[in-house]
Amino acid sequence: MPRTTEGSPEPDWTDPDCPVARTLDLVGDRWSLLVVRDAMDGARSFTEFQRRTGIARNILTDRLRKLTAHGLLAQRTAPSGRRQEYVLTNAGRALFPVILTLRQWGERHAFAPGEPHSTLVDRHGTPVPELAPTGTDGTLLDADTTHVRKTR
């Protein structure tokens, strides 16, 4: 897996200058974001992650190792003192808007009208409002109103 050393990109990065590409190199496979999603929803043990996702043990082992190595999860001793558990780090928790945006896109585009699906709610039980990025002047941003400024 690609890593950075002393701020310099490793040659394995898909596109070393693109934050989207680097992020996908870290969490863009089929299972990593689902593990992060479940950690956000309270999963802590290997068994819980496996039960919630249905992921094969060897793949889950690999993803947990990768997410831990890249600082999205940390291992600690469970309160029982008998097992290790996984907890989100600040970097892992910072993926919340990414998970939320994927969820909201899925609600709009991955289900037929009226098809039932889970709903993310706040601590009061109210559905979380749709995220909408805005510029410094408050106007909505989208692909037509933004562009990438290249570093080179």
Summarize the structure.
GO terms for molecular function: DNA binding. The protein is mainly alpha-helical and 152 residues long.
Write the layout of secondary structure elements.
Layout: E1 4-5, E2 8-9, H1 19-27, H2 32-40, H3 46-53, H4 57-69, E3 73-77, E4 84-88, H5 90-93, H6 96-109
Antiparallel strand pairs: 1-2, 3-4
| Poorly predicted runs | 1-6
CATH superfamily of the domain at 4-109: Winged helix-like DNA-binding domain superfamily/Winged helix DNA-binding domain
Number of helices: 6
CATH class annotation of the domain at 4-109: Mainly Alpha
Q: Which architecture of the domain at 4-109 does the CATH hierarchy give at level 2?
A: Orthogonal Bundle
Main β-sheet, spatial strand arrangement: 1-2
Distance between the termini: 25 Å
Strand content: 5-15%
Shape: globular
Query: What's the CATH topology name of the domain at 4-109?
Result: Arc Repressor Mutant, subunit A
The overall average pLDDT, rounded, is 91
The Rg value, from CA coordinates, equals 18 Å
- Tell me about the largest β-sheet: 2 strands, antiparallel
**Structural class category:** mainly alpha
Order of helices and strands: EEHHHHEEHH
Record field, number of beta strands: 4
Q: Which range best describes the helical content: under 10%, 10-25%, 25-40%, 40-55%, 55-70% or over 70%?
A: 25-40%
